[in-house]
Amino acid sequence: MVEFVGNDNEDVIEDVIEEVNITDDEEENGADDDVVSPPFVGMVFQSWEEVDTYYKRTKDGEWVVKRAVNEHKNHCPTPRKSRYVPRYRQEDITSLVKRKLFNDYNSGANVPQIFNCLASERNGVENVTFTKKDLQNIIARDKAEKMKEGDWNAMWKYFKAMSTDNENFFHKHRVGEDNILKDVMWVDARSRAAYEEFGDVVVFDSTYLTNEYDLPFSNFVGVNHHGQTILLGCALLSHEDSETFEWLFTEWLSCMSNKKPIGFLTDQDAAMRKALREVMPDVRHRWCLWHILTKFSHKLGKYNDYELFKVELHNVIYNSLTKNEFEVQWTDVIKKYKLEGEIWLAGLYHGREMWVPAFMNGMFWAGMKSTQRSESINRFFDGFVYKHTRLFEFAPFYIKVVESRANDEQQADAADQRAVRPWATQFSVERAFRKVYTDAEFLEVQEQCNRVLYLTSLETTMVSAEVAHHKLEDRVWVLCKETRKEFSTKYRRNYIVQINLEIKLAECECKLFESDGILCRHIIKVYDMHDIQDVPDVYILRRWRKDVSRSTRA
Fold it and tell me: What is the CA radius of gyration of the chain?
């Protein structure tokens, strides 16, 4: 569409606006190229360059293009150029594209994965007009349309009632366009009290399930003094992007009086990582090892020798004590099985500081790096929340979960008061922890005491009058997939323990105490060698004790 305004030519048409279809017919009308016709309504041009040329050839007048409608017949912009024009992008999102988008998304694929798949079908991203953001917007609109006002109102009323009954019940929400629920998070009084005692390490999981509104059900969890999973908050999120996670982490931290955890575990998600850097920059963030290992079969099962290199990679992951040891052994396995071209493994290695235990030694993780504990966390909501759980049902189910887990904790507390586990050895360390630790945690100490029998002292060196240097040989222990228990192998490795005999403090390079809060068998062996009967208080952690009074707000 064009409008011309002039004052030096009688053929000027003032203030006339008409739609014109720009075609190729002008080349067929037999006009002489040297003859310049005056402007008129309905003129056609193939490009802005032709408009500029015509203006220069008729510039004796003052011609101005006031408006142009680029509705070109036979005009076919490339996908690369079309992605800058919203209309073209939307036209490229056909019903087939939407069907694949929803089918794959509901099957668990994320939008970037779906976009890459569509691009692959078109032989490259350069042949795709729409963007990832376009697909994300379609998913978001679909979620909003599915949101039933009655469900949201019922949920909101429940939150208000809970807040009235208990001022420590916390909830926040955001709404989008048309006043439709966008994001919501809530934390009950028991969870807030539990965080005060056991908020040192937190696991955030958004992979458990997605409800019928396609809102990912996300949760914050930790472990109590019995090693049981405890709930520290929940959320339903409209987007899994950095802005949404940043809002959630900020509100959740505010609910917890801005008391930050020591460690924070999540799935491999760049958006979460970015949000945590903004909200909790000083908190140690790591990826959940269990989530990574569960992806091995899906990502690598295509290889004929998968079972062989899987075992070797697992051993490298769990048995490497230092960063250098991991890097050397990982590289050896990759070369041995010719896996240099496996992009997923290359990505894991690139981000190794985020998940490999050897890069986490010396930091407390409350035992959450173990696959057993991670599996327990992942099953936390089993039997309570399902795929078709309605929106307004999440909050009541949340309370049921908290009450059920609180009952488990109370039963464990009562059991600890009624009886104690028999001794398995005569080590003084076992007697000391038997008195103060909960049965679940004492069982872990007892297991370390039992494994002392497999140790051999190779060398003892007195570094000074007070400091001794011990070299111990131990068996290599691996986890059995079927029984979920560790067993010893024929392989051996050495550990170094250094002890100050005057203050009775020891340090082992296995770092079990530093990461799990459980005294390792190597230190127990050295204590026995030096006939040390009393365990220093620094090794008895309050969070595992059964003889302390813990606050509750319910």
Answer: 33
Separation CA 390–CA 388 (nearest Å): 6
- Contact between residue 4 and residue 39 where contact means Cβ atoms under 8 Å apart: yes
- Angle CA(188)–CA(193)–CA(198) in degrees, nearest 5? 120
Q: Could you please report the per-residue DSSP string of 349-386? A: HHTGGGT-GGGTTTS--TTTTSHHHHHHHHTTTTTT--
CA dihedral in degrees (304, 308, 314, 320; nearest 10)? -130
First to last CA, the chain: 69
Q: Which helix (H) or strand (E) holds 475?
A: strand 467-479
Q: Which amino acid is at 492?
A: R
Q: What would the pLDDT profile of 438-471 be if each residue is shown by its tens digit? A: 999 999 999 999 999 999 999 999 999 999 999 9
pLDDT for residue 339 is more than 70: yes
Give per-residue pLDDT as tens, 396-446: 777 777 788 889 999 999 999 998 899 999 899 999 999 999 999 999 999
- Pick from 52, 50, 47, 39: nearest CA to 12: 39
- List all residues 6 or more positions away from 414 whose beta carbon is below 8 Å from its beta carbon: none
φ/ψ of 97, rounded to 5, equals: -65, -45
Sort strands 456-462 and 505-508 into parallel, antiparallel or unpaired.
unpaired
Query: How many CB atoms sit inside 10 A of residue 386's CB?
Result: 13
Spatial neighbors of 94 by CB under 8 A, at least 6 apart, are none
Q: What would the two tokens of residue 376 be? A: 């327990």
**Cα 542–Cα 440–Cα 193 angle in degrees, nearest 5:** 50
The answer, yes or no, to whether residue 197 has pLDDT greater than 80, is yes
Nearest-angstrom CA–CA distance, 260 and 264: 9
Q: Residue 168: how many CB atoms within 10 A of its CB?
A: 16
Tell whether the model's pLDDT for residue 49 goes beyond 50: yes
Q: How far is the C-alpha of 310 from the C-alpha of 323, rounded, in Å?
A: 20
Q: Hey, which residues does 235 pair with through a beta bridge?
A: 185, 218
Does the pLDDT value for residue 514 go beyond 50? Answer: yes
CA 44 to CA 28: how far, in whole Å?
Answer: 13
Q: Widest CA span of the chain, in angstroms?
A: 115
- Under the banding of pLDDT at 50, 70 and 90, the label for residue 353 is very high
* pLDDT confidence of residue 138: 86
What pLDDT digit, counting tens, does each position of 59-116 carry? Answer: 555 555 555 555 545 555 555 555 555 665 777 788 888 888 888 886 667 888 899 9
110, 240 Cβ separation under 8 angstroms: yes
pLDDT value at residue 62: 52
List 165's β-bridge partners, or say none. Answer: none
Give yes or no for a contact between 442 and 421, defined as CB atoms under 8 angstroms apart.
yes
Type of residue found at 468: A
Helix (H) or strand (E) holding 99: helix 95-106
**Which is nearest to 412 in space by CA: 432, 441, 434, 383?**
441
